[in-house]
Amino acid sequence: MLKEFTPRTYQEGMIREMIAQERVNIWARMGAGKTVASLTALSALKMMGEVTKPALILGPRRVVNSVWSQETQEWEHLAHLKILVIKGTAKQREKLLANVYDYDAVAITYELLPWLCEFFEKGWPFEMVIADESTKLKSFRLGGSAGRRARAIGKVAHCNIKRWINLTGTPSPNELLDLWGQQWFIDKGERLGRTFTDYQNKYFAPPYGEFGKWNPFEQSMERIQNLLSDCTIHVDPRQELGVDEPIVSMVYVELPVKANQTYREMLREMYTEINGQPIEAFSAAVKSNKLLQIASGGLYLEPGKPEYVKIHEEKLEALEEVFHDHDSPLLVGYQFKFELDMILKKFPWARELKGDQDVKDWNAGKIKMLLVHPASAGHGLSLQHGGHRVCFYSVGWSSEHHDQLIERLGPTRQKQSGYDREVYLYYIQTRGTIDTQAFDVVQGKISTQEALMHAMKETLE
């Protein structure tokens, strides 16, 4: 059943400005509702006749494949919008775009921008762009593949495109250098400088030594924010949600085709085969555990043994996005040892919580990503000094362990330690899998027994 949309006050502000301004930045973290607000604005602009051609939605692969079109299937007021997701081989993409004007929006990854711009070189069909995770455009001034992507869309940004919306997290002082490239697509350098060099020299001190970096002058953050204030909406959910409640973000991924086949086979038959090796579940509990494994990207080959096979990496990509959502350390909860192994291979600089020294280093700000099994994060463990963000790479069946991990650095501990900052919770969930039931269990919506009964019911059906 489709949900009825009641925008929060700050979402109303986002929607209002996206309609009123032809080019605008929306600075907001995950969980602020940027996607539904953007589509609501697009729908309104379509009805008003302000946008008559398809909009182009740019984003990372996971966001393009799993987020934008899904929003139209969740909200009643967006159900009429038709979004085309472009993926596949070049021939498949060309076929999809043959009827581009039949859609309200086309979603495509940044990686495919050079191809898209070349494909429509003689007839650009988009008059509005929504750049999700617009930091991907920061390399407009540089070479390399990232620079080529930004420059490709840059050729039409100010001549063929009437409206432009940048969606990104609130920049920190360390990210100020990245603003120029994004802002160029809003005003062609009018506010921050015609060239990146002008911007850099005006607001940053040059590096000292071979490995130094450009650091903003003391007043640069305030000066830059003032310059961009007329074209930028800075969203702070705390103003409405309150600091006492964590800000929750559901980060969804999709199972790739082959992984989905493996999952469905285990779901229906309680059996699958990996690299010629049979893997069988003899009960609903065992099957549920194996389904959780597949949803997270791996599968143990034999019970009680560490050997596993990698099924997909979708959650790893989502974790990378979560990590970069905020310039602060991230506490990551995992369930399976293979998840820990996969995360450490992807982020070799991350650290597993093993002992007191890890706790000390985390609280001292020396660890950017700390990996912990919720069962080992019991009473008395204080992690609030090191950060205020928790990501559940997966959730198990224990609501106690789930709650305990949050409480290690939750709102209460933040306040007790004198920190006036919000707590962010991220849940990486694989759509259409048992992740949903596990989440409902730890949230207290259903019991573990009900989840297992649901798993067995699907087997019998």
Topology, pairings included?
Blueprint: H1 9-20, E1 23-27, H2 34-48, E2 55-59, H3 61-66, H4 68-72, E3 83-85, H5 90-96, E4 105-109, H6 113-119, E5 128-132, H7 144-157, E6 163-168, H8 179-187, H9 196-203, E7 204-205, E8 215-216, H10 220-228, E9 232-234, H11 238-241, E10 247-253, H12 257-269, E11 271-274, E12 277-280, H13 284-296, E13 298-300, E14 308-310, H14 314-324, E15 330-333, H15 337-346, E16 351-352, H16 356-363, E17 369-372, E18 389-392, H17 399-407, H18 411-416, E19 424-430, H19 435-442, H20 448-460
Parallel strand pairs: 1-6, 1-9, 2-4, 2-5, 3-4, 5-6, 10-19, 15-17, 15-18, 16-17, 18-19
Antiparallel strand pairs: 7-8, 11-12, 13-14
Helix pairs in contact: 1-2, 6-7, 12-13, 13-20
Folded structure, characterized:
By secondary structure, this protein is α/β, with parallel strands linked by helices. It has helices spanning 9-20, 34-48, 61-66, 68-72, 90-96, 113-119, 144-157, 179-187, 196-203, 220-228, 238-241, 257-269, 284-296, 314-324, 337-346, 356-363, 399-407, 411-416, 435-442, 448-460, and strands spanning 23-27, 55-59, 83-85, 105-109, 128-132, 163-168, 204-205, 215-216, 232-234, 247-253, 271-274, 277-280, 298-300, 308-310, 330-333, 351-352, 369-372, 389-392, 424-430. The chain is globular, with a radius of gyration of 23 Å. The mean pLDDT is 89. The chain folds into two domains: 9-239, Tandem AAA-ATPase domain (Rossmann fold, 3-Layer(aba) Sandwich); 242-461, Rossmann fold (3-Layer(aba) Sandwich). The longest helix is centred in the N-terminal third of the chain and has 15 residues, at 34-48. The protein contains 20 helices and 19 strands. The strands form five sheets. The chain has a seven-stranded parallel beta sheet with strand order 3-4-2-5-6-1-9, with helices on both faces. Helix content is 41%, strand content 17%.
